[in-house]
Amino acid sequence: MSFTLNVNGREHAVDAPEDTPLLYILRDELGLHGARYGCGVGQCGACTVLSNGSPLRACVVPAATLSGRNLTTVEGLRAPDGTPHPLHSAFVAEQAGQCAYCIPGMVVTAAALLKEKPRPTEAEIRAALDANLCRCGSHNRIVRAIQRAAEALAR
Hints:
The chain is of the alpha+beta class.
């Protein structure tokens, strides 16, 4: 099946079986390795990307169903000149990723939260990240990174 995906502001012609998960297209066809394969059933959040600004589990959604939507990966959060998003910088500053496997999903989930609520409370941050798992136990540093990014974006 042939279809077009808009990923990080660029149109991509894709030819794949209609049930191919978006994650496979992103990683194997487009070379975007930020979204990770974690559980394969949409439960851990490692594969999270944004679809029209909302978090989406890329491992369980067929790519062909997303034609016409604006998809954003963690790589797509950078400014056009390559400047890191404040979330990228805050996660580094707070040393928020121990193994960093979950971090791309955490970052795009946080980006959606900060767009909706520019100054979220700690409870709102924790609620937004509830479905994103970090097996290293870095949640407190991740929350601090999101708070730091919210402050930077507010300036």
